[in-house]
Specification:
204 residues; mainly alpha; 68% helix
């Protein structure tokens, strides 16, 4: 975080995120602790959404936006991560015209862990990549809000309440969007076992 100086001689380790953000309004350098605590999670989320190259830029933008808005942070929320996910998701939304293309192009390689034969490993890899392509295509076809909810739950393990806080929507809306997204994925990936879909989705 290039524009923020690391706090010196300030012990913020025992403070909650809310206390750190509140303190940073008066002592801006203390906000670096929020970056230290949460940057890896936000970077991982952005990399899964848009790829590593875009994530490198957007993670910095996320924290700079958070820094600028720190005086408006709800200090009743001790954990700042849902707030940061919300900012990151909004930045993703600004690139949604390119996001669909990224979903269709990105492929991940997960090496086999068993001692299968080379032929079996190749077959398994081809099958996994094929399913991933179908899954990414299906994700790209979801409504923006439905996809945001699904990925925050599946990739980042946020609770419904945390997703609601991140996206500034009611918990009931989170539930309905998640149910709709999962139903549409099952429809578009008809024939694939539900547990296989969940496994591939959770592995990003």
């Amino acid at each position: 975080m290039r524009r923020l100086r690391r706090a010196k001689d300030v012990d913020v380790g025992a403070l909650t995120d809310a206390e750190v953000v509140d303190r940073s309004v008066r002592e801006p350098e203390t906000f670096a602790a929020i970056f230290d605590r949460h940057a890896p999670h936000i970077h991982r989320y952005l990399a899964r959404r848009l790829g590593s190259a875009a994530a490198d830029d957007l993670v910095a933008e996320t924290f700079l936006a958070a820094f600028r808005r720190r005086d408006r942070y709800d200090t009743g929320c001790p954990n700042a991560r849902p707030w940061l996910y919300g900012i990151a998701t909004n930045l993703v939304a600004q690139q949604r015209r390119t996001e669909e293309r990224e979903y269709r192009l990105r492929q991940a390689y997960h090496p086999a862990t068993s001692e299968a034969s080379p032929a079996d490993r190749v077959a398994a890899e081809v099958t996994a990549r094929s399913l991933r392509r179908h899954l990414l295509d299906a994700l790209a076809g979801l409504a923006d809000g439905d996809r945001d909810v699904l990925l925050l739950v599946a990739w980042e393990d946020l609770t419904y309440e945390e997703v609601a806080a991140a996206l500034a929507i009611p918990v009931g809306t989170v539930r309905s969007r998640l149910n709709r997204a999962r139903r549409l994925l099952r429809e578009r990936l008809a024939g694939e076992p539900a547990d296989t879909i969940e496994e591939v989705l959770s592995n990003g």
